[in-house]
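Thread: zinc ion complex, take 2
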Amino acid sequence: MWGMVKVLYGSDMYRRRKSREATTTVSVLAWFKTLLLAADKMPDTSDFIIPAGTKRDVYTWYDQDRIAHDTLYEKCSASFFNNIWSRILPNVKLRKYLRFTKCCYCVKWRGTRWSKQATTAQKAEAKEKLREHYSYIKCERAYGRAKQNQAIQEPDKYLSIAIDGCENLPHGLPHFPEVHAQHSIIPFIVVSLVISHANYVCIYIYLT
Ligand SMILES: [Zn+2]
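Output below.
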């Protein structure tokens, strides 16, 4: 049955390897696209910030999703994954802590993870705690994003709003460290911003 034997010459093997690599590249990029739905987009750059401690953590997330959804994602090594990331998605970056403020939980367990005094068991525990924490954050953000999407798609049925206030300048104006509060003008106004994800942005200004 010699006719059934396919002999792979060098160029065939090269083509097959390249084809496999292309498929895996698409798989990794598709996975990142889903991840970025729950990432922080920087308002002034094209950067996306993901709440992972290390690139190895991100690869572990990919590999866990690949195992959970084996028809969706292709298996690849950490070095292949990182190579795609740095070549095609250099604007996806790691953040040390959560946005807006340092999360005490992250600070505590990251401290243990990178501590020279911590034992191997303590570091392993910290790594697992952080993995669970990041997974929880991803789910929370995806949940929030899903609500925003519902409000945008069906604005008559759902409302999704975000409200945030500007700093009230407790030391008054001018706002310089060398100027004491008693020599400043203390503003009596408060500014709050409201975003309805479906359709509008409002600025509320009121007197205290
Ligand atoms: Zn945290």
